[in-house]
């Protein structure tokens, strides 16, 4: 079975977004919906779905041009076109009869090798296929995406007892490799995995909130990033999902599950929904956006007692404030043992989650790690419930549950009997019955340092060098936001030396953090500038340039594996690699102008070189160079950041030989393969000496344009200063004539000089201070 073309039936919010993700992956998609009798365009709903996806924020498409891969149609005129599709997925109304009627029609036209799937979030899969042929049932499997499909990693694959294992294998591999999803194989039970456990947690948190006298905003502080969970926490998540959806799912789960699984909604919550307060879709939920008299957005909080919205200001919870800046394990333990009503709430809520996850083991899924992954990938948790119990200590959790008078689920009863204190221990874990089994790491995790430190060759506080096997080393940064400082730079230098001294094939620079790198260590740079340590700063920038350019000018291949934020110095490191293997969700940009600087690690040089090389040979002289200079100036001067790796390629950050990988978790593995492909015939490059520049002519042209922008109020006084230094570097320096050619080192020296010049100015230091305090650029 191969999936080369897909069909999505149902062009609503979810169906259109799934079609967009298929198109993002380069898969042609047929998008069908019903015909509206009052619309002259019979494809109105499918077209509207694509338009909605194009306008969605956050963007559903990685590149708007990918929308061309979607063919729209309707279920009356175009049903036979399903015969060309390898995978047919429905995302229609959540009514069993409607789905059964659809499958009867699909079976008559689908080809005999097509995989058939439902995106239903609650209707059991086996009920949908009653009455269908044995062959159809064999090829049917649930495929439950989470919204928005581009950004939420989880896909629950739900086989019935009739589904052919080969169908599950084919769809799972396609989803993981081509669509970039994290696949969890769920059992065909109510709620499947993530919603069953996640909605239980939301409902129980509502109950405990009222019991302990907390507000929704206080609960969101307690159950958000401080606990290693998404910033939307509990009640913001409910607003995003829709309070009516939460109500509907909880009611259905309550009816379909045993009495001890308490999905009872509070009366306050029922009253909110009855009033039409449904979350973001209705304009208000537990929170409501409004604007003050100055037009500034304010967030009002719902008072559950009065039913009115209040400006509660910035809500601070003492237990959360006390753990700020601490590692996750310390935060979790401190919050779990906190005093007062906040601690009482957290213990009650967390114990509910622990008890329920253990009870669901073997019910919703057959592996503990699948439950953990479902909550991490579907709800944005850093740790799943079993991983969190490991952090606290399984035996301590068991004591607390027994102190509350709870009956232990079989898994926890077995853990108590054996005295085991962790569910994950190296390459061991447990079955739902509490028997030891081998931990099956997802095959894409190459360097799981939490579970195997034996592959670490050398370690610093902010970086590690890891042996990936087959003669390839990995430099893994693990500082906050992976800001680039001494540890990160020295780790790259050490790795280059190890490759040469020990005969390794080459090097990958990547990591498994939240982001590849947010750029240079600004606090350090600012403190040195304010102390006027100019010689030290000059040496630091030289070192940064040397390490950045060593990504290309070394005797062995070096491959960058960026993902997420790849900004400033992180972008410069990637630009100089022999190859880039980028996650599709890579946000690359040279953003230094936002803090009053220009790229100083070779980024300015590199973009000029690339854009000049792309000119026709006849253009690489005199004024004909200006388009390349202007393109580099606009990219850097506006701090343009790509919204995806596909856009990064358009902007020039990625080249034709670079690779885009849909699944972030496959990036290191594929970067390793790229090193091994380059290594046998690798020849060390040398620095270019033939880069044509325009000199004063380019400076004049750019400054003329800047003057007009300044007069029009589009740029500030200090923007002019920063832009002037950028223009000087991109022009090859003052005094050069229209036919000059310079070396890469010449441009690097100009970069370093401009970087130091700007760093010495008050305007730049003010911009850096403002960015560090507020996280936003200063327009001075």
Automatic annotation (TrEMBL):
Keywords: NAD, Oxidoreductase, Signal. The keyword Ligase does not apply. InterPro entries: 3-OHacyl-CoA_DH_NAD-bd, 3HC_DH_C, 6-PGluconate_DH-like_C_sf, ClpP/crotonase-like_dom_sf, ECH_dom, NAD(P)-bd_dom_sf. It comes from the Bacteria. Residues 191-288 form the 3-hydroxyacyl-CoA dehydrogenase C-terminal domain. GO terms for biological process: fatty acid metabolic process. GO terms for molecular function: (3S)-3-hydroxyacyl-CoA dehydrogenase (NAD+) activity; NAD+ binding. Residues 1-25 form the signal peptide. Residues 478-604 form the Enoyl-CoA hydratase/isomerase domain. It catalyses: a (3S)-3-hydroxyacyl-CoA + NAD(+) = a 3-oxoacyl-CoA + NADH + H(+). Residues 5-188 form the 3-hydroxyacyl-CoA dehydrogenase NAD binding domain. It holds the Pfam family ECH_2. PANTHER family: 3-HYDROXYACYL-COA DEHYDROGENASE FAMILY PROTEIN, 3-HYDROXYACYL-COA DEHYDROGENASE-RELATED. This is 3-hydroxyacyl-CoA dehydrogenase.
């Amino acid at each position: 079975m191969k999936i080369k073309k897909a069909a999505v039936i149902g062009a609503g919010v979810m169906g259109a977004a799934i079609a967009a993700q298929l198109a993002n992956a380069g898969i042609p998609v047929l998008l069908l919906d019903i015909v509206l009798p009052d619309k002259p365009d019979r494809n109105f709903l499918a077209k509207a779905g694509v338009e909605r996806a194009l306008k969605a924020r956050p963007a559903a498409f990685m590149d708007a041009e990918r929308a061309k891969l979607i063919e729209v149609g309707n279920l009356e005129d175009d049903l036979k076109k399903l015969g060309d599709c390898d995978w047919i997925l429905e995302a229609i109304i959540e009514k069993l009869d409607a789905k059964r009627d659809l499958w009867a029609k699909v079976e008559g036209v689908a080809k005999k090798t097509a995989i058939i799937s439902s995106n239903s979030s609650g209707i059991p899969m086996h009920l949908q296929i009653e009455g269908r042929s044995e062959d159809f049932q064999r090829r049917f499997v649930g495929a439950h995406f989470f919204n928005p499909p581009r950004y939420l990693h989880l896909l629950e694959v739900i086989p019935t007892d009739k589904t052919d294992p080969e169908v599950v294998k084919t769809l799972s591999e396609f989803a993981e490799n081509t669509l970039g999803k994290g696949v969890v194989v769920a059992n065909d039970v109510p709620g499947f995995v993530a919603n069953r456990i996640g909605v239980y947690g939301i409902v129980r948190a509502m109950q405990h909130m009222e019991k302990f006298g907390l507000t929704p905003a206080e609960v969101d502080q307690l159950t958000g990033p401080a606990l290693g969970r998404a910033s939307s926490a509990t009640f913001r998540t409910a607003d995003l999902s829709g309070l009516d959806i939460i109500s509907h799912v909880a009611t259905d789960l309550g009816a379909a599950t045993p009495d001890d699984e308490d999905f009872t909604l509070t009366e306050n919550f029922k009253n909110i929904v009855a009033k039409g307060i449904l979350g973001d879709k209705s304009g208000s939920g537990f929170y409501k956006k409004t604007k003050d008299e100055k037009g500034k957005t304010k967030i009002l909080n719902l008072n559950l007692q009065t039913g009115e919205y209040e400006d509660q200001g910035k809500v601070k919870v003492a237990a959360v404030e006390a753990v700020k800046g601490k590692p996750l394990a310390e935060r979790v333990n401190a919050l779990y043992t906190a005093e007062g009503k906040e601690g009482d709430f957290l213990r009650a809520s967390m114990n509910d989650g622990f008890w329920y996850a253990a009870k669901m083991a073997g019910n919703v899924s057959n592996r503990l790690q699948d439950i953990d992954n479902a909550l991490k990938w579907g709800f944005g948790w850093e740790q799943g419930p079993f991983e969190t119990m490991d952090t606290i200590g399984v035996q301590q959790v068991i004591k607390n549950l027994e102190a509350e008078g709870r009956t232990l689920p079989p898994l926890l009863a077995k853990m108590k009997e054996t005295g085991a204190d962790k569910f994950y221990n190296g390459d061991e874990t447990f079955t739902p019955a509490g028997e030891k089994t081998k931990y099956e790491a997802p095959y894409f995790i190459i360097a799981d340092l939490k579970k195997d430190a034996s592959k670490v060759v050398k370690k610093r506080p902010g970086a590690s060098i890891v042996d990936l096997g087959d003669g390839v080393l990995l430099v893994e940064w693990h500082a906050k936001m992976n800001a680039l400082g001494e540890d990160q730079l020295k780790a790259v230098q050490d790795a280059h030396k190890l490759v040469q001294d020990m005969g390794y094939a080459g090097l990958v620079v990547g990591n498994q953090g939240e982001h590849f790198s947010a750029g240079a260590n600004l606090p350090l740079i600012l403190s040195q500038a304010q102390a006027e340590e100019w010689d030290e700063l000059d040496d630091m920038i030289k070192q940064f340039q040397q390490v950045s350019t060593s990504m290309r000018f070394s005797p062995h291949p070096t491959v960058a594996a960026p993902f997420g934020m790849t900004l400033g110095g992180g972008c410069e490191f990637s630009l100089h690699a022999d190859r880039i293997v980028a996650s599709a969700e890579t946000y690359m940009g040279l953003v230094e102008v936002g803090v009053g600087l220009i790229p100083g690690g070779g980024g300015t040089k590199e973009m000029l070189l690339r854009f000049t090389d792309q000119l026709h040979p006849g253009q690489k002289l005199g004024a004909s160079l200006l388009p390349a200079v202007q393109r580099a100036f606009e990219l850097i001067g506006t701090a343009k950041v790509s919204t995806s790796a596909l856009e990064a390629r358009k902007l020039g950050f990625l080249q034709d030989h670079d690779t885009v990988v849909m699944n972030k978790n496959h990036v290191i593995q594929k970067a390793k393969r790229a090193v091994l492909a380059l290594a046998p015939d690798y020849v060390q490059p040398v620095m270019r000496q033939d880069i044509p520049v325009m000199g004063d002519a380019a400076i004049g042209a750019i400054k003329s344009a800047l003057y007009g922008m300044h007069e029009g109020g589009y740029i500030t006084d200090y923007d002019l200063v920063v832009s002037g230094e950028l223009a000087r570097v991109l022009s090859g320096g003052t005094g050069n004539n229209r036919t000059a050619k310079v070396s890469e080192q010449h441009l690097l020296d100009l970069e370093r000089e401009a970087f130091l010049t700007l760093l010495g100015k008050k305007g730049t230091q003010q911009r850096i201070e403002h960015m560090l305090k507020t996280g936003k650029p200063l327009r001075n």
